[in-house]
Amino acid sequence: MAKRSVCLISTLQDRTASVILQHLRISSFNVSPGARSRAGRRSVCSDSVAQEVKSLEPKHYSSREVAIIGGSAAGMFTAHLLARRGARVQVFEGAGQLDPRPRTLIVTAQMLETVGPASQQAITNEIRRFELFTDGRVAEIALRRPDLVVERSKLISCLANQARAAGAQILLGRRFLGMQTNARQLELSVERKEDGRIEVVGAQTVVGADGAVSRVAQAAGWPKQSTVPLLQAIVRLPRGMRVDTTRVWFIPEDTPYFYWLIPQSPVQGALGLIGENGVQTRRVLDRFLEKHHLEPLEFQAARIPLYTGWIPVRRKLPSGEIYLVGDAAGHVKVTTVGGIVTGFRGALGVAEAILNRGTYRRLKALKRELDVHLLIRKAIHNFKQADYSKLVDLINATVRQDLETCTRDEPAKMLLRLCLHEPRLLLMGLRSLLANRSALRVRDH
Ligand SMILES: Cc1cc2nc3c(=O)[nH]c(=O)nc-3n(C[C@H](O)[C@H](O)[C@H](O)COP(=O)(O)OP(=O)(O)OC[C@H]3O[C@@H](n4cnc5c(N)ncnc54)[C@H](O)[C@@H]3O)c2cc1C
Known about the structure:
It is a single chain. This protein is an alpha/beta fold. Helix content is 38%, strand content 26%. The protein has 14 helices and 17 strands. It has helices at residues 2-28, 33-39, 49-55, 73-83, 110-115, 152-165, 215-219, 278-291, 340-355, 361-380, 385-393, 397-405, 411-421, 423-435, and strands spanning 65-69, 88-93, 104-107, 123-134, 137-151, 169-172, 174-181, 186-192, 198-203, 205-208, 227-236, 245-249, 259-263, 268-274, 298-305, 314-317, 320-324. An 8-stranded mixed β-sheet has the order 3-5-4-12-13-14-11-15. The chain has a 6-stranded mixed β-sheet with strand order 6-2-1-10-17-16. A 3-stranded antiparallel β-sheet has the order 7-8-9. The protein is globular. It starts with a helix and ends in a 10-residue tail after the last helix. 44% of the residues are buried. It binds flavin-adenine dinucleotide (FAD). Flavin-adenine dinucleotide is lined by residues 69-75, 92-95, 103, 105-107, 152, 175-176, 209-211, 215, 230, 232, 272, 300-302, 304, 326-327, 332, 338-340, 343.
């Protein structure tokens, strides 16, 4: 066992070094030094900004015609990245207006570093502390860098403005139906919401940013993704709850994931969970709300892809190429089922691949990180109550320091530190991995 542990640690160490390196590179893209100081936040690698921006200059300045299907977070950010490098970008969004339903999200500060200050207007709160509850126990983790609470509808508006300013054309009420190829390019069939007419649009490159159940992916022959339901209720914050603190509950009999309560303002927060089955998820949330005397003011829900392994994001056809980004590509951390930051990082990778014709450095780094999340999820997915209790008991001063320093967008670094500083965590994880080889139960409902 000792030998295997050492071997795993050294493999992780190698991977970690390169993941961190990639992570640092990504962090500085798209943020000018001036913009960063306006944002009032320090970049992880401010010294390398100029070098990094230079490395992103496309080898072939793009005059490509790119059609992006889906005008949400990943699609709008991809549009911005490509349009500002000269590509002729059109975004086709099925909804008639750019006012997606509200959704409260929590992200690491890496969001700002990735998309730049344009996203700042979408921030509604900052989280400086996590409280973890399980079976009467509680552990507190203070964050070195605050997490950001973001309103998704505002974020999409900010990103749309940024994409438009870069020259992208955003067409609302345009639903993608299917795709054909001709000798020169890809031909997309798009339905106009206002009169139901079908338009045929030509493009050399198509980017599917159309969410978990991507029609672009289906049309181009990608396999269907597994998904899980995420459901949250907006509630008034319980009396005495700190507005800078997110609460997390591990209750394995309700969910193999967790419940959260994220304050979005001094008076309201989002209380939710990730489930496996839609009906059951609603049932346990209702029970939880009742038990904690919380009244739901509104519900927010959708199915989000479950990352069970990397899928190549590009398909090459004789007359063009097709890429996937965001939820359509399954770029979601399977530990927390968060897809915003990883979706943006996938967008950076796809933009890099399109502009520099086949450079996949960023996508490879993202794959490594998503794979580490998968490893962690597999290790904890079948934890019983006793395992969570033990886990919380193992949070000593050093472990707490590791959790405070690394974010969930640096999973390899966090895992390595935790394993080195508290080997019992490593043993727990290994034992659970070996006991539950097919740990990630996936059901589609
Ligand atoms: C309740 C809840 C809470 C969440 N909390 C978090 C969180 O705290 N942190 C986090 O990181 N993530 C969170 N997520 C996940 C996160 O919201 C998603 O990963 C992210 O929004 C995905 O963005 P996207 O741009 O890839 O896809 P989507 O937001 O799904 O957008 C897809 C877009 O494509 C459009 N579209 C679809 N089909 C077509 C078509 N045929 N033609 C044209 N347009 C089309 C849609 O109208 C939509 O605008 C949460 C999800 C839920 C449901």
